Amino acid sequence: MVKRQLVLGCGPAGLKAAEKIRETNDDYEVKLVSLENCLPYCPASLPYLVAGRIGEEDLWLRDEDYFLKKGISFTKGKQAVRVLPDKRRVIYQDGDVDEYDALLIATGAQPSMPLIERFKDINILNFHTLTDYRRLNSMLSSQTVVAIIGAGMVAIEIAMALVERGINVKIIGRGRPLRSYFDEQPGTYITDILTNYGIQITTGKKLAIARQLKDSIEVVSDDGQVFEANLLINCSGVTPRISFLEGSGIKINQGIIVDRQLGTNINGILAAGDVAEAPDFFHGLIGISAILPSATDQGRIAGENMSGKNNNYKGWIPMNLFNLFDNTICSLGLHKPRKSEGVIMEEKDDGKRYFKRLVFEEGELVGAMFVNSEIEPGIIRYIIEHKVKVERNKELLFYETNDVSRWLMLENEKHEMA
Amino acid sequence: MAGFYEILKAEYGQCPEECSLCEQACISHMNDGYGSRIKILHLREVGFHGVSKCNQCNEPSCSDICPVGAINKNSSDGVVRILEKKCIGCGLCTLACPYGGVDYNPASRKSFKCNNCDGEPECVKACTNNVLSYRRSRPIRNYMGEDLFTPGAGTCIGCSMEHVIRFSLRILGEDIIIFRSAGCSAIAMGTMPQGVAIKTSSCVCLMTNVPAVATGVKRYLKKIGQDPTCVIMGGDGLTADVGFQSLSGAAERGENLLYICLDNEAYMNTGIQRSSTTPYSSWTTTTPGGKEKRGKDLPLIMAFHGIPYVATAVMAFPEDYAQKLLKAKAVKDGMAYIHVLCPCVVGWRADDDSCIEIGRLAVETNYFPLWEFENGKVNFTHHVKKMRPLSEFTKLMGRFSSLTVSQLRQLEEDIKRRIEMLETLAKR
User: Fold this and answer.
1) Percentages helix, strand, coil for chain B, rounded to the nearest 5?
2) What is the topology classification, in CATH, of domain A119-236?
3) A9 pLDDT above the threshold of 50
4) Nearest residue on chain A to B61, judged by CA atoms?
5) For residue range B149-183, what is the model confidence (pLDDT) as tens digits?
6) Is the pLDDT of residue B365 over 70?
7) Nearest 5°: CA angle at B230, between B227 and B232?
8) Is A249 left (phi over 0), alpha (psi -120 to 50) or beta?
C-alpha cells in the first residue's frame, strides 16, 4: 500500500519536510496543506515588503507548477480543526477529511493575543502573515506615526523596514531591544544604532490604557506616560498554533513536545518549526526556537524521518543575525559560560559601536556575540555545532576571528572526511 | 537526485606563503567592488597557508534558508547562484552556510558568492602552484541504477571483485540474467538456495558449460519475444581453463551473450593455485618459486575470434569501465567480452585497502593496458602519459616479493612486446 505522508503548514519547516520526503522516497504520496490561501512564502521576508525592497511577486518560494512536477499535492486555504490519531485522520474546517500514515505538524505560530484582548475596541494590527502586511500597507502614508508594542526580533525588523520607507516609528517595549539575544553592552549599541536612525525607543513600560481618538490612538503606560500614534502594531511575541490539537492526546507544553527524532508522544505524528518544542543543543532541554534556521533544520530532519530514516536532531542553538542598516549584529549560543571554569573573551569600542565576545567552555566555543565585527557567522556556528576543539587557539581565534575560524573549520572538515 | 558536476578543487593547505594570485584574479574578474569570493588564509602562527571557497553543495543550506528563494542550485551545471535582483539583504545565508561560502556587502545590501565564473574559473587559471584545479567529472551517476546487491557480502575484506560485480549490475540494470559457476564470484553473488545476494535472475551452471547454458536460455527467450541481456560472470579459471571450449564455441557461433571475465590471475577460491592467466614469475601455492610460463592473453584471444566487441577494464577507472559495459550491452549481433582485472588481496598478498591502487598502477605501468576492440581494430581508451616503472606495481604485492632482477626484466620484456602488438593492431 502507498504510504500517505501529510504535512500541515507550508512555512519553511513544512515545505522543507515535504520536499525531503519526496526526494528520499519516490513511492510515497506527499500532501502539503497550507492554512493561507496563497503559494508558500517565508514570513521572514514580510518586513522587506514593507521596506519596499521587493514586491509581492517576489515573495513566492515555489509555484503550482513546481509541486506538479515534483508530485507533491499542494492544497491552500485549508484549516485543520481536529486531529484523530487513533483513526489517523485530520478534519478540516470545511468538513473535508484526510487520512495519513505519517503526519507532520508544522503549523507555525501566531501572534500572542493578550494585548489585543485587553484593548478590544482599538484597532491593533498584527504583523505575522501576508494578510497582516496587506492591511498594514493599505493604512500607511508618509505622515503615519507607527507605535510598535514589543522590542523583540519581529518588532525590530518591522521598525527598520518602516524607517527605510520614511515612516515615523516608536518602539514601546518592556525591555531594551533584542534583549534575549544581546546583553547589556552590545544592547546599548543596538539601541543607539536604532535611535540614530530616528526610531524612538521607550523601554520599561507596560501598557495600561489605550484610547481611540478621532484619527489617532493614545496609549498610556502604567506609570502615566502618554504615547500618540496613528497605528499600533502588536509585536509582543508569538505562540504556537496548536488550538486544533485539543483532545488529540498529543503532548503539549507551550508547543508540541518532540524528541530527538522530532516525533511526538504519538507514533506517526511529528512536529517541526515554530510549533514544536524540541531539545536544545546545549542542555537537551525542550523549548521553542521560533527562528528560521531552526525551522529549516527541523523540517529537513522530520522529512527524512518520515521517509523511513532515523536521524537525530542535534538540537537548536539560539542565534540571530541582523543587518541594521549599515551595522551587522549577530548572536550565537550562550551569552555566558554555564560553569565557573568557562572563559569569556571580550573587546569593545564605544566610538565605533564595535563589540566582540567569545564564550568558551572546556576548550570548546559555546557562544559568540558581535556588533560591527568582521566575522563569518556561519563558520562560528559550525565551530559551535561541531564542538571543534579550540583550547590551544583561543587567543588566536579571538584576535583573528575571521581567518582562524575558517582554518579551524577546514581542519575539522578534513578530519571528518578522513 | 544529486548530480555530478564540475568542481573547483583546492589542495588542502598547499599554498606558498604570501601568495594571493587567486584572490587578485577573482577581484579583477568580478570587478564589482564586493571583493574576492575565494579566500586565502596565511596563518603564520600555525603554519597554515591555504584557501577556502564555496563548495557548491548538493544541498545548499544558503538556498534552504533564503526567505525569498533568491538562491538556487542550477541543475545543469551544479552552481549555486544568488539572483541579485531578488536578494533582500537579510544576510541569513551567511549564518546558514557552515563553510563561509556566502558573503554580505553592506553597501549594496546584497549577498554574493562564487559562481565558478560560469565554468571558466579565473582563480584556477591564475594559480601557478597547482593548488587549485577545476575537475570535470563525467556523468557516471546519470547511468548508475539501483544497487542490486542485498546487504551483507560473502567476500574477503577488501575484495575488488565484489566491487566489480556490484558496479557492473548498477550499470547493466535489472533486465538481465546472470549465469555463473563455481568460484569466488558465484559465492559473492550468493550460494543458493540460502543467502542469495543479488536482486536479479541468476542461474548457476557447471564450469564446463556456462556459455552453452546461457545460449539455450537466450535463444528460448528470444523465441518468446523477450530480450534480456544474458550476462556470464566468472573467474579466470572458468574462462581461460575449465570452460574455455564452451566460451570459444559460443563466440564462434555468434551467440548474443555478454561475457565478463573477473580475472584475479589464479584459482583463489580453492586455495590460490596457478591458472593459465597467472603472470610469469608470480607466486601461487602451486608455483612456490614463481610461475615459469607466461600468462595467456585472453582478451586478445577473444578479439581474434572476431566477435563484435572486446574490452579490458579495471575498477580504478570506473568511468572507462561503465562506458565499456554500456557498449557491450548494446551489442546485439554476437558476443561481447570484457576482461576485468580484479586484484585479490588474499591471493596477491596485498594490503586490504590496496586494490584500487594496484589496479591503477597495473594500467600506468602498462601491465594491464585499457583498450577495446571493435571492427578489427584496437582502440586505447586510456593513454598512459608517463609510464611508471613496473617495480612500483610489483612491490605492492607479496606474490612478487621474491622477484629477481632478471625475472623483472623478463616481465618488462613481455609487457613491452604485448603493448607493441596492441599498437600494431591500433594502427590498422
Assistant:
1) 35, 20, 45
2) FAD/NAD(P)-binding domain (3.50.50)
3) yes
4) A296
5) 887 777 899 999 999 999 999 999 989 999 999 99
6) yes
7) 175
8) left
A197 touches chain B (CB under 8 A): no
Q: Which amino acid is at A303?
A: G
Residue of B nearest to A59 (CA): B68
Beta carbons within 10 angstroms of residue A192's beta carbon = 14
CATH number of A4-110+239-306: 3.50.50.60
A45 to chain B: closest CA residue = B67
DSSP state for residue A14 in the 8-state scheme: H
How much is the pLDDT for B1? Answer: 40
**What would the mean pLDDT of B227-243 be, rounded to a whole number?**
96
pLDDT band at A116 (very low <50, low <70, confident <90, very high): low
What's the average model confidence in pLDDT over A164-188? Answer: 91
Q: A133-147, A218-232, B214-228: which range is least confident on average?
A: A218-232
For B381-417, the DSSP string reads SS--SSPPPHHHHHTT-GGGTT--HHHHHHHHHHHHH
Chain B contact present for A404, CB below 8 A: yes
Instruction: Determine whether the interchain pair B94/A319 forms a contact, defined as Cβ–Cβ distance below 8 Å.
Output: no
Interchain pair A378, B96: CB under 8 A: yes
* Cα–Cα distance for residue pair B283/B287, rounded to 1 Å: 6
- Domains A4-110+239-306 and A119-236 belong to one CATH topology: yes
**Whether A53 contacts chain B with CB within 8 A:** yes
Rounded Cα–Cα distance for residues B41 and B48 (Å): 7
Please judge whether B98 and A381 are an interchain contact, meaning their C-beta atoms are less than 8 angstroms apart: yes
Q: Do residues B278 and B353 lie in contact, with contact meaning Cβ atoms separated by under 8 Å?
A: no
**Which residue type occupies A307?**
S
Mean pLDDT score of chain B:
92
Q: Which residue of A has its CA nearest to B92?
A: A321
Range B181-209 burial, b when 16+ CB lie within 10 A, else e: bbbbbbbbbbeeeeeebbebebbbbebeb
Encode pLDDT of B136-151 as tens digits: 766 677 778 888 888 7
pLDDT tens track for B49-88: 999 999 999 899 999 999 999 999 998 888 999 999 999 9
Expressed in angstroms, the distance from the first to the final Cα of chain A is: 41
Kindly report which listed range (A204-213, B259-268, B325-334) carries the lowest average pLDDT score. A204-213
At A260-275, the pLDDT tens digits run 999 999 999 999 999 9
pTM above 0.90, yes or no: no
What does the pLDDT read at residue A374?
86
Res A397: pLDDT: 95
Q: Angle at CA B366, nearest 5°, toward B360 and B370?
A: 70
Chain A residues within an 8 Å CB radius of B65 = 12, 292-293, 296
- Quickly count helices (H) and strands (E) in chain A: 11, 26
Query: Taking the domains of chain A in order of start, what are their residue ranges?
Result: 4-110+239-306, 119-236, 326-417
Beta-carbon separation of B95 and A300 below 8 A:
no
Q: Which of B172, B255, B171 is nearest to B209 (CA)?
A: B255
Q: Which residues pair with A149 in a beta bridge?
A: A172, A234
What is residue A26's predicted lDDT score, i.e. its pLDDT? 79
CB contacts of B97 in chain A (<8 Å) are: 378
Does residue B196 register a pLDDT over 70? no
ipTM of the modeled complex: 0.93
Location of C-alpha cell 550562550: A334
Chain B residues whose beta carbon lies within 8 Å of the beta carbon of residue A377: 91, 94-95
Does the structural domain A326-417 have CATH classification 3.40.50?
Answer: no
Q: How many Å lie between the alpha carbon of A410 and the closest alpha carbon of chain B?
A: 8
Beta strand pairing call for A145-149 and A124-126: unpaired
